[in-house]
Amino acid sequence: MKPILIVGAGLAGYTVARELRKLDKISPLLIVTADSGGVYSKPMLSNAFAQGKSAQQLLSQRAEQMATQLGATVLTATRVLGVDGGRKTVSTTGGVLEYEKLVIAVGAAPIRLPLGGDAADQVLAVNHLDDYAIFRSRLAGKSGTATSRIAILGAGLIGCEFADDLAGAGHLVTLVDPNPLPLAAIAPPALSQGLAAALTARGITLRLATTASQINKAIDGLEVHLADHSMVKADLVLSAVGLRPELTVAKAGNLATGRGILVDAFGQTSVRDIYALGDCAEYTCELDGGTRTLPYIAPLMTAARAIARTLSGTATMIDLKPAPVIVKTPCYLMALVPPPLHAIASGEWRSASYDGTIVSRFYDEHGIMVGFGVAPHEPNIRQKLLAELGMKCASELPARSV
Ligand SMILES: Cc1cc2nc3c(=O)[nH]c(=O)nc-3n(C[C@H](O)[C@H](O)[C@H](O)COP(=O)(O)OP(=O)(O)OC[C@H]3O[C@@H](n4cnc5c(N)ncnc54)[C@H](O)[C@@H]3O)c2cc1C
Question: What is the tens place of the pLDDT at every residue in 74-101?
Fold first, then answer.
């Protein structure tokens, strides 16, 4: 009997496997992964420096333990190179494997900025436990003191979280971003301003509305040259300018791709019996009336449950609901439901302050609320705002507008 083959041992791959085993304890299950197959919480990576956690401490289970728990074979250090949807095989660095059904859960890779300078290759990115281990060891080795100067490129979700966390661990952080405010792509301006103030009060230097152009070696570390002709001294440079869905396997198998691997409402790709989810997937999204990559935990869990049911014989649509993203910046915790991309140009944010809590609602061109943000993050207010999504704009805001 050919196995159900899952490519990737991140949260997406392992969650499909767990959900499948709740429904089907018999079908052979094979998980193939390029890494060591250990289980860790990726969101912890941007919250673990301040807690002084080592990579080992973030690892909760090893591949062998997962294999036993799931009644599966886990092939580690094995990269999938291509897919043949007709023959139902995948080619890997360890040979050709057959499958009955295939699930692609290969994640995303950090985007690399085209930087000049003789130290451009020293820029690090953290999107995996192994990257975290490398960054941590460089941090320990670089400055010779407990405090390092760290330049972070990108003040999006991940960049802001790392900045807050590394500052919390006692490091001197400079955050560089082309936008005039942090988190500009997904947060309302009122909350971005609050975050900018909180990061500054935390001791983080914000270098906004400019970009890094070159990284050069210097006697005392690195020099990050910015487009505005200024320069930032650093011991380490961390890039957090975004992730790009991993498409190598999909393209080799001629699967339809957009920004991610395109999947239908059931999570199936353009080729029969091949599914995709997680950071590599581009979901068909009722909410947007289009397709959308959703590189967050909540949609991945929903997709994993639906795909597992479909694999076990009950065709199940992925029921993607708006899920708040919690921005894990302890200096300014916020919850966000970013508005759909197509609504941004024609809609508007409206913000109000309630006893120090800022609530921002995004209304589309028809006056329907399609996004929100709240800071400081209050779970009760977040739940109320979630219930308001899809509703018509109230004519008056009951609090002071900001
Ligand atoms: C620092 C950080 C903080 C985050 N915080 C949050 C948060 O607070 N809330 C939230 O909702 N989301 C957060 N996210 C996003 C969330 O963690 C991801 O959406 C999720 O972990 C993605 O899981 P995945 O399994 O799709 O990908 P990954 O975890 O990247 O797993 C991909 C797997 O595929 C394997 N692989 C890749 N290519 C191949 C190949 N060719 N052959 C075989 N194996 C391959 C890899 O080795 C890996 O095992 C955060 C992300 C980061 C980086």
Answer: 999 999 999 999 999 999 999 999 999 9
Ligand 1 neighbour 246 (Cβ under 6 A): yes
- Enter the pTM of the model: 0.94
For ligand 1, atom 37, the nearest C-alpha belongs to 106
Domains assigned to the chain: 4-109+243-311 (3.50.50.60), 112-239 (3.50.50.60), 333-401 (3.30.390)
CB 6 within 8 A of CB 105: yes
Whether residue 58 has its Cβ less than 6 Å from ligand 1 = no
| Ligand 1 atom closest to residue 298's alpha carbon, by position in its atom list | 11
Q: Are strands 243-245 and 108-110 parallel, antiparallel or unpaired?
A: antiparallel
Q: Is 388 within 8 Å of 372 (Cβ atoms)?
A: yes
Edge-to-edge, what's the strand order for the sheet holding 221-226?
212-218, 221-226, 231-234
CA-nearest residue, atom 31 of ligand 1 = 10
Distance, in Å, from the CA atom of 139 to the CA atom of 98, rounded to the nearest integer, reads: 43
- Of the candidates 156, 165, 144, the one whose C-alpha atom is nearest the C-alpha of residue 50 is 165
